[in-house]
Amino acid sequence: MAIERTLSIIKPDAVSRNLIGEIESRFEKAGLQIVAARMIHMTQEQAEGFYAEHRERSFFPDLVGFMTSGPVIVQVLEGENAIARNRELMGATNPKEAEAGTIRADYADSIDANAVHGSDSPESAEREIAYFFNDSEICPRTL
Ligand code: GDP
Ligand code: MG
């Protein structure tokens, strides 16, 4: 199995509800390592650029409005099959459809306020990691 990196975001709803620790704990217990992390409050321009693939969708203004409504944690998770593993831990986009025990099933309120983001492919992981982090900010384990 391949060691991969993926871009994870703890969204404003989860940060606001003091769920940062709970969510990070799930990643760590699943064997994913946090190799970069920062708290930011995204500007409209930053959120629009990050979600550029959804620019034509009807929910785009709501998505950008929500993602700029409060601080988020942007981070890089590393581990075996990190991209798919993170998506499994997150659960389906709509929390009502998310499998029991996933982050979105347990902590998310709605399809807008759905607690977490995770890259969906190696190509998007590469783009999304580079969107927020320089190589020098990524700190793989040495022990
Ligand atoms: P994700 O990869 O599971 O986060 O889902 P997508 O990449 O398809 O969409 C990005 C984000 O846009 C999702 O996490 C949702 O917060 C939001 N979103 C997606 N689809 C819808 C929708 O049909 N309606 C609304 N209101 N928001 C949506
Ligand atoms: Mg997506």
UniProtKB/TrEMBL annotation:
Residues 3-140 form the Nucleoside diphosphate kinase-like domain. Keywords: ATP-binding, Cytoplasm, Kinase, Magnesium, Metal-binding, Nucleotide metabolism, Nucleotide-binding, Phosphoprotein, Transferase. The active site is at residue 117. GO terms for biological process: CTP biosynthetic process; GTP biosynthetic process; UTP biosynthetic process. GO terms for cellular component: cytoplasm. It is found in: Cytoplasm. Coiled coil: none annotated. The keyword ATP-binding applies. Its main location: cytoplasm. Major role in the synthesis of nucleoside triphosphates other than ATP. The ATP gamma phosphate is transferred to the NDP beta phosphate via a ping-pong mechanism, using a phosphorylated active-site intermediate. HAMAP family: NDP_kinase. This is Nucleoside diphosphate kinase. It comes from Halovibrio salipaludis. The gene is ndk.
